[in-house]
Amino acid sequence: MMDTFVIVLLALIFDRMLGEAKRFHPLVGFGNIANRIEQGLNNGAHKKLKGLIAVFIAIAPITFVFVLIDSLLQDVSVLYMLFSAFVLYLAIGWQSLIQHALNISQPLQQKNLAQARKAVSLIVSRDTEHLSETDIAKAATESVLENGSDAIFSAIFWFCVLGVPGVVIYRLSNTLDAMWGYKNERFIAFGWAAARFDDLLNLIPARLTALSYSFVGNTRLALKCWRQQGFSWKSPNAGPVMAAGAGALNVSLGGAAQYHNELQIRQALGPDVDMGGEIPVAESINKACELLNRALLLWLLVIAIVSVGLGLLL
After folding, report:
1. 117: how many CB neighbours lie within 10 A of its CB?
2. What is the distance between the alpha carbons of residues 314 and 308, in angstroms, rounded to a whole number?
3. What digits encode the pLDDT tens for the residues 266-311?
């Protein structure tokens, strides 16, 4: 049972040493396949049904291949562990997320708003051209908290539950949601299945992430914000994560933001400034990264304890 802990640790070491794969990343190839599937099916009537079929066509064959490889390597311990760790490494984005955050916080600390706006535009979907210093810090802090769940903890969770096939299904589903999950005329019906499947897969790990942020930050405030604000957010999974994260950091997030030239009034997250909440600044981004890293250490500790416990029982 300790294999799971060792594999997760190896994957994080790979990510720490190698960072995000810059060339020939498998998800780029998968994205090209997904585009062709969407172009072939996203037309005419019954778009919701076609979207469901598209999700199956995109995910099932690739997952089947990984199931076969996984079963063939089960009896070769070292190869199995290296293969599993490499797949998990490709599915997580720990160092990439931290580096993106630093690329925003550093110029922001130097009052270089132009560079900070350019850097934050790479990880958020809101309009960034005219963001103030506070808005940039808010957007980046929110992104670190939310993507910590999507890019790291959910992938680790599904690996722990279902091994390599689990993490493959999760990462492919998450990629399809990022490509097809828009609520615009083109994808509102066709992308419905991809968005709902991703929501389902994130349901448990998102709440475990929110709980982790709470334990390693301002616990009382994080749990309070999660309880009062987490269920009013536009995303059922991002809400608890970001509300708990904002409370854990004692920073005021959420509120109005502009997307595609349209102002959206979003739920406030975290403590209000009038109640002692901190206004987001460059240091808030760094603190969010530190919170994420502490939560990751907590997950490693829990995985190690559970692995040892199951090993003793079995």
Report:
1. 22
2. 10
3. 889 999 988 889 999 999 999 999 999 999 999 999 999 998 888 7
